[in-house]
Specification:
- The structure is a homodimer.
- By secondary structure, chain A is an alpha/beta fold.
- The first copy, chain A, is built from 19 helices and 20 strands.
- In chain A, the strands form five sheets. In chain A, strands 7-10-11-12-13-14-15-18 form an eight-stranded parallel barrel.
- The first copy, chain A, is globular, with a radius of gyration of 26 Å.
- At the A-B interface, helix 19 of A face helix 19 of B.
């Protein structure tokens, strides 16, 4: 495995389909993405299997035919049957005895079909006669970059930015193309390229000063079916014009944005739109002018509308100057309370982007109650690929494990149900802060590439399981076989292990403030951030039931009832919803406290087991990959030990109760 | 009061001595400092009282005679008797009916005598017939700057550096002269001008690249009797030469330092020497080469010796990678354990600089046991004027209150006794990180000027009281009178108030890690820094008696006995030495817990009282000074409230015991 190549490795085995079929290529279609699909087919077969693909000018057998459905339909004859239609961005693959056919609903569909076919080829699972039809569940499949123009990345753990350096746009064209390939191959169709906290120089990205360079960047992504999106500062008119306001109802402000949008779209005609973090954590927004989020979003959306752009408005809005003394305020309610009353008030090209949970990408949170509740507002769900609270790409934490549980969450609201099933309906798609940087292996921890891969796969098809993703990614990255199976096994153990040694049972925020790595059990306890656990000598947790902050009641009545009751509340979230005495009896018959001790001892032991599994793989892995991952596991062991011991000591000091099994808890 | 002028204010009253006497000046002596003493006499009489001082060429009455004792002795005749001798840097002042006489033991002594006389004149307390003889207790009276070359100041709370900007030496000459005046007027004779953490560009300060500019800076301080000192990086040969070592026993290393010292002294012939932080908090040092601190210090001292330079070696050495689980290690022991075995091993021009307490400038610590124990090693005590742990010059905290208690600490060792009495004997002097920056008022909080003033006064004369200093400073800064008395009253209340709302009873380190402002009660509890309180549901504190870490035993037997016993241990340090149950009965008959509650309620109330006293002064103060101090008091109130409530809530949660007096403790 070469770490840079991710899931496009050089193959040692021959392809599982006849090389003669693969190396004669007929294609039908047109457009930049179509051309690139053809080119990618040839490039990867050459790179991975050393096959030279010859272009032929008619459909032939043995041979391969790829194209856009509408172009292929009149040309394909004989036994081969094309589907009469395909959903947007979908594809059809047919591996015949002497013919391979890949048809795309459109240019992107073809590109995705090509990548999917090549992945299946690498996995060795294709055989003659196989037919595959796929289409993405959601329309918007986005990566968010939190890259700053000084080259740093907010919550980035894999080196500097791919796009910026020293307050300039500066990038390696070849690397951008490689990144675009990685993204497109997992179905990404939109990338926002700057931090939603738009500060300093980044404010000028939407001006003539930077737009020509951004247009060049857009041109690199375009053949991969990826449109750029820009994060904009709501107060831009104040810093970029002589207008001393950003009031969305001020005609001068609205006009400035209209004109600015015109300038931007002259440079990047297919820009996907803007993404905005407003009235959040110190960022400017409509509240400052006594306006609503709808006022703010609609004004910007109107500026984008003539150009076909969309406005993504983040729902991460809460009181970040909260007084810890005040138990009546509950940050978990904030997004719902802020946005639910506005349902139906947003313009047609506004999309709300809400984090999957009500707090902030904690290891375990319930799904945000806005999903399923919003009925007249377009929305996307935000996940997080970069491991902000999940180990900084030092600790291994295979996130599709979490995402699978999110996709399976049943909102139990009206016509909608599971998040996965709502995708493409109530939820238009997904966004996520990505985990890549200039590190040679893209993601710091080489195995964290699986999170990027898994994100694309899961939002393409929310019915996929974490297990399927783990095996697929491992097979592609390490070649199918025992090693890949062992690595998939490690991946699948990693999330439960991480969850066990972290903040217990959905309590959240026992992490080091600011840094968000490692334990600091009371680190947020008296802060302004609204994230408290209120542990005392007898009990822990915030009562979010009807007897407390009422947060549980924001869900559908059935879900509210489930969360309200201790007996029915899922135990991995029980401390999110309930304040419990340490001697509360959990389902396994042990006390809450003993369960905290048990999970923390287990969490560490499971990291040790992953470490041991990894060291047993030594001979079968490329040395640099082996060593780099090993050093991360060593750091993870140390981190897991801190979590285990600090959490256990903390609760031991609070309760004076020793571990039932007599294991060492420090005093 | 003009904030920039500190204790050199324009006077509204006429001087309390006859202007005719003051304005005819005869002087005898020579040298740059002598000339400056004459010049300062004239400058300040003009600036403060508008008096033009005429120089006359013989002693006359009415008139003033100032000079160096040896020059004056042959000239003074008649009734006036000069003392036959004066200790180094001392002075003699005699206010006769028609003659004023100021004689210095030497140039510096004269300068100090002039400043002292002018201060007494401003305070209005001089009368004909008064005779004053003074000399400093300690030889080395140093200010340390922790200024970085990028213009920032480590632990600086009063704006950017006076000396550096954008990685260059850059300063306002006039401001440096004003600073030199302030420093000299309180007896400072040495200033180290760069951070002891010598990083990046600062490593080049000792090279030809920077020395010419430093020489110019030295020339500005020289007429004020102030010598510069440089902080050097122990690993300099590695970064500045081709020698790939800093091993103090490597002849190439020693030689490099000899040559470098030669270069430095060609530029600044009166450089006081080097100050070094080695093997501490990540800084390089002799340990890396298996050598001792004596090896390291002596090698550098040898390089300085030919030039008359001294080597100040900091004792702030401890394991900053401590494991919180390990109760056997006690950081409080570190300086003693590291340096006591080396007593007698240091070269004659090495001076150890040890912080006043065994930890790190906490609000309350016992005096470091090295003082009095070191018998064959020269040493200075390090205080801290910059308010790192004492309120960041946002909160008012009059430090002479603390220093007075340090000066009064009786080491009860052999021929030595109280710290104050040992000054000039066992303790050669003092150093302290200063609290000034480019803020117009020098110290951020205008009233924090009192700490700079008080430092100089107290190390000059350790028998002075905080009360005397407070009244003297207030009188000089605000003009003698009711306002000054009220302000002195505020100053004198400020330390006890600060101590009350902070970490209780000598427990230390409940402050926000890194920042060192505001509470974070468990912030250091599981860290690597060795500063733990180990509070559990029943008890708090580290047992540092013979039954615990044995730290108390490092003191003289009498002191050890006092600290060992709960009954005799001073209560403001009881949690430094003892682990106590919350229901431990304190001397006032209340439990430890109730005492914690009480002190924290009182601390806040006392800040409120200071605030009220200040607002009552409104009419009598210059508006800008009033407002700027008021805004600090507002922030202090908020900080004191956080300390009060977080501490009280923390212990309430731990114990479940409510306040006896029924005051509000949040849950």
């Amino acid at each position: 495995m070469k770490e840079y190549d991710c899931w496009f490795q050089e193959q040692t085995e021959k392809p599982c389909l006849n090389a003669e079929i693969l190396s004669r290529l007929f294609s039908a279609g047109e457009g930049a993405v179509f051309n690139n699909a053809v080119s990618e087919y040839r490039f990867i077969l050459k790179k991975s299997w050393g096959l030279n693909v010859e272009k032929v000018n008619k459909i032939s057998a043995p041979g391969t035919t790829i194209g856009i459905l509408s172009y292929l339909a009149p040309l394909v004859t004989g036994d081969v049957k094309l589907p009469p239609a395909l959903p947007a961005e979908g594809f059809y693959i047919r591996a015949g005895a002497d013919q391979l056919l890949i048809a795309g609903a459109d240019e992107r569909g073809l590109l995705y079909g090509v990548y999917r076919f090549l992945a299946l080829l690498a996995l060795g699972g294709l055989k003659a006669g196989d037919e595959i039809t796929e289409a993405p569940a959601g329309r918007l499949r986005m990566l968010n970059h939190w890259d700053n123009m000084d080259g740093t990345i907010e919550r980035g753990y894999a080196g500097p930015s791919l796009f910026y350096k020293d307050n300039r746009i500066e990038y390696d064209r070849e690397r951008i193309v490689d990144y675009a390939r990685l993204a497109a191959s997992i179905g990404i169709n939109c990338i926002s390229i700057n931090n939603v906290n738009v500060r300093r120089e980044a404010k000028r990205l939407i001006t003539e000063e930077c737009l020509p360079e951004l247009a060049e960047l857009a041109a690199l992504f375009r053949p991969f079916g990826i449109r750029l999106m820009l994060a904009v500062n709501f107060a831009s008119p104040k810093s970029l014009s002589t207008i001393d306001s950003a009031d969305p109802l001020d005609p001068a402000v609205a006009n400035w944005w209209k004109e600015q949008a015109g300038i931007i779209y002259r440079h990047i005609p297919d820009l996907a739109g803007f993404i905005v973090k407003a009235d959040s954590e110190g960022e400017s927004g409509p509240f400052q002018y006594g306006r609503t989020h709808a006022d703010g979003a609609n004004m910007l959306a109107a500026a984008l509308k003539p150009h076909g752009g969309e406005l993504v408005w983040r729902c991460f809005v809460y009181d970040c100057r909260q007084d810890w003394r005040d138990h009546s305020v509950d940050r978990a309610r904030a997004a719902y309370d802020n946005f639910m009353p506005l349902d139906g008030k947003f313009a047609g090209n506004v999309i709300l982007q809400a984090k999957f949970g009500p707090l902030d990408f904690q290891v375990r949170e319930p799904v945000m109650p806005l999903f399923g509740a919003l009925e007249k507002t377009r929305c996307v769900m935000e996940l997080q690929i970069t491991q902000e609270y999940t180990g900084h790409q030092i600790d291994l934490c295979f996130l599709p494990w979490l995402w699978e549980s999110i996709m399976n969450f049943d909102t139990r609201r009206g016509f909608k149900s599971r998040i996965g099933e709502m995708t493409g309906k109530g939820i238009e798609g997904f966004a996520a802060v990505v985990n890549v940087g200039l590190d040679r292996n893209w993601t710091g921890h080489t195995l964290a590439q699986a999170n990027l891969y898994g994100y694309g796969r899961m939002i393409w098809n929310p019915a996929i399981t974490a297990k399927e993703i783990a095996h697929e990614w491992s097979g592609l990255s390490f070649g199918p076989g025992k090693t890949a199976e062992a690595i998939a096994g490690i991946l699948l153990k990693s999330y439960p292990a991480y969850e066990k040694y972290n903040a217990p049972f959905g309590i959240c925020f026992m992490v080091t403030p600011g840094l968000h790595y490692g334990p600091n059990i009371e680190g947020y306890e008296f802060s302004q951030w609204g994230t408290y656990h209120r542990a005392d000598r007898n009990a822990i947790g915030v009562d979010r039931t009807s007897g407390g902050t009422g947060y549980a009641g924001l869900y559908s009545p059935e879900n509210a009832e489930i969360f309200e009751q201790r007996a029915t509340c899922p135990e991995n979230l029980i401390l999110f919803f309930h304040r419990l005495d340490y001697d509360y009896k959990m389902k396994n018959g042990e006390t809450l406290l003993q369960n905290i001790y048990d999970t923390h001892f287990e969490g560490y032991d499971e990291v040790k087991a992953m470490y041991d599994t990894w060291t047993a793989l030594k001979g079968g892995l490329d040395e640099p990959v082996y060593n780099s991952v090993l050093s991360r596991f060593e750091r993870q062991l140390s981190n897991a030990r801190e979590w285990r011991d600090q959490i256990n000591t903390y609760f031991y000091r609070k309760t004076g109760v020793t571990d039932k099994k007599g294991r060492k808890i420090y005093d």
